[in-house]
């Protein structure tokens, strides 16, 4: 326990969990978790995917019932069988995926489920007053009469916070709140949260980003494999220590790499356009080029066309425009626009979504290690597949990529996220492609494996291959890329060299702000994002 | 590991389901005032204790193996082919045409030719729904169901108006020429001293069904096509990522499925009736769904499940013959087996899984 235990006995913890355990079938999601969150603090909970953070918060919010353990709110033992009880106890939750009615106004969403009386008018006018007050108190400004679908993601999140505050929440839980925000919006959110804390609210912030923890929390609890491994004061810890607590061993947080020695352009993209099945233009004239021996990083908030770009390049969907590989134009719509043809041209693809694209989860590791290359005549024996040969080859690849357990007969679904990603990488990299497309290489991957994956990508670059990296993690883009292109709303907003740019500049580009604004950053960002939301809302009609 | 071992999933779960279905069936029989023990004994005696009983059981099983494989192959590509019945009917038409209009020198040649015709007709009948699914997105369940009705109507028309011999009263073709007669088990296994399988319809097609099981196993688990079919069945987006054409897999899987259903007609039409009659399929296409479900779409499972349903069919016929238990009750028992093995699968699996894992936990402690 923290050394300042004695001080804390003076005030009651806002939330105290004692011995919480929860199992889903055979999986122990939470094991004997005890935690005290003091009032008027921002308490971070950090841990890797699957560490049990979300389960713990769902128990606190009444979505799950704990198998064992007790919950105390402001020192009083409280049963929370459902979310109504959680709200009554003063707990508000902002989910990763917002729960808003798209074609309702802000005001209507705020009162939804908290209407008073038979007529809406009373609740609406009351809410209008409360919202005005909240806007003044916490700088939580949102137009109460705007339709949700016309708001940017950042504003929608503010509506979620307002909903909780309207229900008189004293304790606010935010689950990975910055995942969908541009850096400027994330900054603004943190200012709001600080304002709330200073007014005496208690905030629990769930995240997997060390930087956010260091920036904004007062206390941080680390979870690993369903257990609470430590609770420390943020001012007394370091990212390195937290990473070690999360993983259980020392990890290298920065990437070592030599300067790139780029050669001739290998992948050239000109005026690439793609219209999705809903008729919405997702790529609006992309032009890029990637040279041999360099990593081009595509930065951007998810949903701005990066996935579509990868899909087009990987042969999963059609497009118009021109793509040249080693100077030769490739087919974008016809017979030779599928994944097989792309592979034949030396394009390997580590897709963003390994569960639905990169792997067949019920397939064994060895079956997955030839997926996409299964037509290679070298692995056929007459009519049949040379299973024994493929297995032997798979075992070698798994050893080289340190896949654990190194058992080629195990189904892909039984590997951890990091090891699944290593299987995909091993398959694509070991084919010695000219071009590697990599989408979100470390999403849902444990920190230990991140280190390894980054090294492999850089090793491939040093072999003189062209690499196109798409990631929503700006840190990853900044540390891996030799050149950075920023995507917003289906367009490239600009290209920068990592040494000559920073989070702030990239963050503005990610929001579509290309010139230094003459007003506060957040307003310029808000303006662009709102315009984009409204364009999309029009498209959806 | 958070799962029970594969063998338990494949063996124990269906076994428990059958036992549960049997218990409830026993209660039903008890409720109508008959003795379940007697009934069960009668079924076993009639279906398994004499060779002629086996002859019927295996005859039915042959049908169910073909239709079960038909559903199983489509399942691997995540398509629910409800049209086995119709595909088998049209397959029967192909078999009949081949037998009636081609002068075969010997039954072996005739069998190969009729098989090709049956498979071709069955596959052809599956092609249209497959094409509609692949190109137009019309749901295969809906189209194959509708195609069952169309198949029945087509067959009706062809039998009544085209193939019925002059002056014949029933809607059926003429009897096939003797050269197309397939050896029955009775002819194959009886000796002068010990007659076996007397009067029962089981014939050489059974071995063809076994061969089909082996063939499907090879296709699904050892060939590149099988690899692509399964990949497509597990995840369509992943298949697209790998460059596997959804149109190609949908069409090929359905053609194979329809061909297997079409082959069923060899048993009923060529092997047993030796002419094409109106209702030759007798619902075997639908039983195939239950067989594939229960057999986990694996050829070995399909084989065993087909045997079980063959036993239920034959045993049920015996019950109707010797007791006051109405024939409809057999349908109830079959329905219960389908209900427990198919629809209520998780009801058995989940407690069993929990049991297994608590054992394992206990073992570790």
UniProtKB/TrEMBL annotation, chain B:
One of its GO terms (molecular function) is transmembrane transporter activity. Pfam families: BPD_transp_2. GO terms for cellular component: plasma membrane. InterPro entries: ABC_transp_permease (IPR001851). Keywords: Cell membrane, Membrane, Transmembrane, Transmembrane helix. It is a multi-pass membrane protein. It is found in: Cell membrane. The chain crosses the membrane at residues 12-33, 53-75, 87-104, 110-128, 140-160, 204-221, 249-270, 302-323, 329-348. This is ABC transporter permease. It comes from Thetidibacter halocola.
């Amino acid at each position: 326990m923290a050394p300042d235990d004695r001080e804390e006995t003076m005030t009651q913890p806002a939330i105290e969990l004692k011995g919480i355990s929860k199992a889903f079938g055979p999986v122990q999601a939470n094991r004997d978790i005890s935690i005290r969150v003091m009032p008027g603090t921002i308490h971070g909970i950090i841990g890797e995917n699957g560490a049990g953070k979300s389960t713990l918060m769902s128990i606190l919010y009444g979505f799950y019932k704990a198998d064992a353990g007790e919950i105390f709110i402001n020192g009083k033992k409280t049963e929370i069988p459902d979310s109504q009880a959680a709200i009554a106890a003063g707990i508000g939750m902002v989910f990763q995926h917002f729960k808003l009615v798209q074609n309702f106004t802000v005001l209507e969403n705020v009162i939804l489920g908290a209407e008073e009386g038979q007529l809406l008018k009373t609740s609406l006018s009351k809410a209008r007053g409360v919202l005005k007050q909240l806007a003044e108190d916490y700088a939580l400004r949102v137009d109460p009469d705007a339709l949700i679908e016309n708001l940017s993601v950042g504003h929608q999140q503010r509506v979620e916070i307002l909903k909780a505050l309207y229900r008189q929440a004293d304790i606010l839980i935010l689950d990975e709140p910055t995942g969908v925000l541009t850096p400027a919006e994330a900054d603004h959110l943190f200012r709001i949260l600080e304002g709330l804390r200073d007014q005496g609210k208690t905030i629990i912030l769930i995240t997997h980003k060390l930087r956010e923890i260091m920036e904004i929390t007062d206390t941080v609890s680390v979870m690993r494999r369903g257990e609470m491994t430590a609770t420390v004061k943020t001012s007394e810890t370091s990212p390195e220590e937290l990473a070690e607590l999360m993983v259980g061993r020392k990890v290298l947080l920065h990437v070592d790499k030599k300067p790139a020695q780029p050669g001739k352009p290998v992948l050239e993209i000109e005026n690439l356009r793609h219209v999705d099945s809903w008729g919405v233009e997702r790529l609006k004239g992309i032009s890029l080029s990637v040279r041999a021996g360099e990593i081009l990083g595509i930065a951007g908030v998810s949903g701005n066309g990066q996935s579509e770009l990868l899909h087009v390049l990987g042969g999963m969907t059609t497009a118009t425009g021109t793509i040249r590989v080693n100077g030769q134009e490739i087919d974008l719509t016809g017979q030779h626009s599928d994944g097989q043809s792309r592979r034949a041209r030396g394009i390997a693809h580590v897709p963003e979504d390994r569960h639905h694209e990169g792997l067949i989860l019920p397939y064994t590791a060895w079956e997955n290690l030839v997926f996409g290359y299964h037509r290679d005549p070298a692995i056929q024996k007459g009519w049949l597949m040379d299973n024994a040969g493929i297995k032997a080859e798979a075992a070698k690849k798994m050893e080289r990529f340190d896949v654990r357990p190194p058992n080629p007969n195990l189904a892909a679904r039984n590997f951890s996220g990091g090891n699944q990603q290593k299987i995909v990488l091993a398959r694509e990299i070991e084919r010695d492609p000219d071009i590697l497309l990599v989408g979100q290489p470390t999403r849902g991957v444990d920190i230990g494996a991140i280190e390894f994956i980054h090294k492999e990508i850089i090793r491939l670059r040093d072999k003189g291959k062209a690499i196109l990296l798409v990631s929503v993690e700006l840190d990853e883009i900044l540390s891996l890329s030799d050149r950075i292109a920023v995507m917003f709303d289906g367009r490239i907003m600009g290209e920068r060299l990592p040494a000559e740019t920073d989070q702030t500049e990239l963050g503005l580009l990610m929001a579509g702000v290309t010139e230094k604004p003459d007003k506060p950053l957040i307003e310029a960002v808000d303006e662009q994002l709102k315009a984009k939301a409204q364009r999309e809302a029009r498209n959806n009609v | 590991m958070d799962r029970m071992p594969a063998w338990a999933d494949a063996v124990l779960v269906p076994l428990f389901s059958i036992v549960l279905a049997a218990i409830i069936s026993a209660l039903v029989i008890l409720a109508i005032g008959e003795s379940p023990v007697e009934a069960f004994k009668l079924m076993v005696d009639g279906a398994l204790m004499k060779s002629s009983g086996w002859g019927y059981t295996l005859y039915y099983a042959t049908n169910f193996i073909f239709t079960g494989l038909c559903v199983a192959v489509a399942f691997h590509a995540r398509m629910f082919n409800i049209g086995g019945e119709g595909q088998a009917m049209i397959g029967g038409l192909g078999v009949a045409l081949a037998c009636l209009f081609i002068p075969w020198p010997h039954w072996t040649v005739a069998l190969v030719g009729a098989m090709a015709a049956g498979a071709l007709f069955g596959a052809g009948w599956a092609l249209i729904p497959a094409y509609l699914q692949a190109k137009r997105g019309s749901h295969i369940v809906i189209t194959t169901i509708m195609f069952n009705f169309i198949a029945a109507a087509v067959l009706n028309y062809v039998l009544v108006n085209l193939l019925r011999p002059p002056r014949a009263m029933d809607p059926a073709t003429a009897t096939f020429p003797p050269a197309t007669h397939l050896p029955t088990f009775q002819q194959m296994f009886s000796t002068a001293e010990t007659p076996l399988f007397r009067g029962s319809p089981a014939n050489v097609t059974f071995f063809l069904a076994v061969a089909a099981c082996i063939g499907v196993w090879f296709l699904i688990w050892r060939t590149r096509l099988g690899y692509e079919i399964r990949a497509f069945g597990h995840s369509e987006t992943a298949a697209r990522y790998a460059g596997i054409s959804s149109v190609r897999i949908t069409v090929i899987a359905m053609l194979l499925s329809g061909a297997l259903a079409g082959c069923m007609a060899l048993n009923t039409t060529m092997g047993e009736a030796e002419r094409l009659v109106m209702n030759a399929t007798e619902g075997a296409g639908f039983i195939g769904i239950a067989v594939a479900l229960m057999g986990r779409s694996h050829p070995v499972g399909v084989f065993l499940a087909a045997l079980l349903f063959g036993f239920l069919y034959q045993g049920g016929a015996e019950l109707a013959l010797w007791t006051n238990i109405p024939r409809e009750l057999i349908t109830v028992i079959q329905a219960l087996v389908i209900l427990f093995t198919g629809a209520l699968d998780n009801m058995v699996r989940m407690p069993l899984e929990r049991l297994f894992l608590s054992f394992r936990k206990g073992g570790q402690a």
